[in-house]
């Protein structure tokens, strides 16, 4: 058959954000839109001849269509082999796992993660490099540059094979191998965690609810929790991936996973609750009447890392994104290991993990992971907690409270202002930046500003520099106010305001975080002219 060279013209705005290119499905459906971006990826990665690519997505609307197009384009670019998950499915962590295990050249993930799906929803595409992790920024910028000057893309005119049948077929000379999307991943999890102990825990009557939110985590949770670990059938709910996630945001936070929270806070709640997002790289951990703050979850995992067989030798270090609370820093100090502060987005953890400088990574946005792959990993975090519950014999809330008693509590909250007018949001950030020089030493509502800057990160491994990564105002007592604009939204701008206050006093650990953080929120609103500039009285989402 024939390899076609199709003339095309550039689309504006194909710059990858925090995690790949995310747009409305309708934008991706424009003729050539997906093709242009994929051509730009293949032009940037270098010689594809004879290479192996891994391909799959979170099952949302347009996933299959995109996989078929990418297969035909990969064949036209000389790839020898593409490993594609059955049904075009691979969770983000599973793709990372397969890239590493099969020593592939790279991978393409189709997902808009926690953003809603369906014809009216969002779609996304992201390139992962040979370490299994998201392409670093210099790479994504090169892809963007390529989209600006594109004149043609190459594609085979052969149809893509049936993606629901495991096995090998061909497009042109290229092998298409439809693989079991859960196999490699499940084997890796069984290596890292004490499955015998978790199995015994479930056998003893321990109860759990895992809410897969109709997203790609369902098949993984079914296979591992109800399959390998013997949790009773029905432990996993909403476990069949739907193209529109049942009309919900597949976002595991207390607002979007309200049904799980309601169950966990009601009388007769199961012992443990958890949820993952659209592509199963995020996790929410819930105990009886307690949702665990993601920053605390990272700190607790770090403090207890050695309970899991995969981490018995201890951890080399921790990395957290800048807006994530400093709770993990306290654990790192106690363990005598470094804690790195990176910009938002998992791509910044790759070098530290590859260099063996850190073992655990996390973000406040319900993302936790380790050096086992190069993406955050929702199921991994759930299994870590199960391993910890099995090893300690304690419930979630006791583990969290004991952690606070030992290290103090970093009271934390994120306020999101979604779909704000873009120029108003840019103006707010510029206004904040303009004040930074004069803030240090200023007193505000009982706090004294110790440091005010726009976060700049120099990668300790390759010395690459990322600038303008968020405005942070740090008080002398360690309290922090952080502002940044989201790089994953598809409508207007989303302003994220992150608030943190350290509370050593045990007696104050039960006060509502919003009450504890009210003073900092007021300072943030005043300094940024939030209400005046956005017209918003309240955040859209508080987590
Ligand atoms: C958000 C989170 C960030 C996360 C990113 C991708 O980015 O804040 O921590 O890495 O989503 O996660 P932003 O730029 O919107 O704040 V996922 O699960 O959407 O791939
Ligand atoms: Co995600």
Written description of the protein model:
There is one protein chain. The chain is an alpha/beta fold and 543 residues long. It has three domains: 3-180, 3-Layer(aba) Sandwich (Alpha-D-Glucose-1,6-Bisphosphate, Chain A, domain 3); 185-407, 3-Layer(aba) Sandwich (Alpha-D-Glucose-1,6-Bisphosphate, Chain A, domain 3); 409-542, Alpha-D-phosphohexomutase, C-terminal domain (TATA-Binding Protein, 2-Layer Sandwich). Helix content is 33%, strand content 25%. It is built from 18 helices and 27 strands. The strands form six sheets. Strands 2-6-5-3-4-9-8 form a seven-stranded mixed beta sheet, sandwiched between helices. Strands 20-21-24-25-26-19-27 form a seven-stranded antiparallel beta sheet. A five-stranded mixed beta sheet has the order 11-10-12-13-14, sandwiched between helices. Helix 2 crosses helix 3 (63-76). The longest helix has 18 residues, at 422-439. It starts with a strand and ends with a strand. The relative contact order is 0.11. The mean pLDDT is 96. The chain binds alpha-D-glucose-1-phosphate-6-vanadate (VG1) and cobalt (II) ion. Alpha-D-glucose-1-phosphate-6-vanadate (VG1) binds next to loops.
